[in-house]
Amino acid sequence: MGMQLLKHITLLAILLSYSTATTAQLPSDDYQNESIQARPITPSKWEQVTDGLDYTEAAKEKKEKKKEENNRRYGDLRSQQRSISIGQKLISNILIFILIIAALVGIALIIKNMLGIEIIPRNKKIKNASIGPLSLEAIEENIHESDLERFIRQALEEKNYALAIRLYYLAILKELSLAKAIRWKRDKTNRQYMLELQQSPLAPAFTEATRIFEWAWYGNHELSEADYHRLAPKFEAIVEEVKKHS
Question: Are 152 and 184 in contact (CB under 8 A)?
């Protein structure tokens, strides 16, 4: 019994001694006590280690997404600029067209005034008027020899008041021609006579007579007896004024 207990005690002592020695030499103690040494990695070794790995995929996707967004914005901007350019070009063309039309109208008016072209159509029914056996054309052809006062009275007897105003206007032209203020020609226009008189003191009175005559002769209305008696004194006054300057 005593010998067995001694054996057990001896075995226990040996185990405790082995455990202590083993614990003193654990790898963790060696790792903690081991000095750190730098181990350089060559480019070829890094390529070998990282072969098959792509750490830039997210960056590429972000870059592509940003590029697409920039292209879309650039396309929208170009589209807006194109629309603005088309609108500006359309407005510019419209303005140019308006200016051209205005210039053509201005040139036409200048030419009309220079040449004395009438833009008011004649009243054909009145144009072919006649007094007794004489036509208005025959009276105009022989204006200096015609007794216009007698023809005016005949027109009034026939109640042709527009023709009477026309004859009064011819009487004014006759007196202006006799006074050498104008050069009478049957195919000349009223505007041409106005240009000839623009430096004359008779110009305002003749302009007023022309305005009244054209309203009575070319207007699309029937001249009444009241209209005639309202206008006739003005023509008589102009005839007398022209005679004073002759």
Answer: no
Mean pLDDT confidence for 95-107: 81
- Cα R_g (the chain), whole angstroms: 59
CATH number of 124-245: 2.30.29, 1.20.140, 3.80.10, 1.20.120? Answer: 1.20.120
- Rounded to whole angstroms, how far apart are CA atoms 200 and 207? 11
In contact, 204 and 229? CB cutoff 8 Å: no
Secondary structure element (H or E) that encloses residue 187, with its range = none
- Residue 62 CA to residue 56 CA, distance in Å, equals 10
Question: Distance between the two ends of the chain, CA-based, in angstroms?
Answer: 184
Average pLDDT score over the chain = 75
Structure-model confidence comparison of residues 88 and 39, the more confident one? 88
Please say whether the beta carbons of 172 and 212 come within 8 A.
no
**130-131 and 134-135 strand pairing:** antiparallel
179 alpha carbon, distance to own chain's centre: 52
- pLDDT tens digits, 227-245: 999 999 989 888 888 887 7
63 phi/psi in degrees, rounded to 5: -65, -40
pLDDT of 213 higher than 80: yes
From CA 213, how far away is CA 217, in angstroms rounded? 6
For the entire predicted model, the pTM comes to 0.49
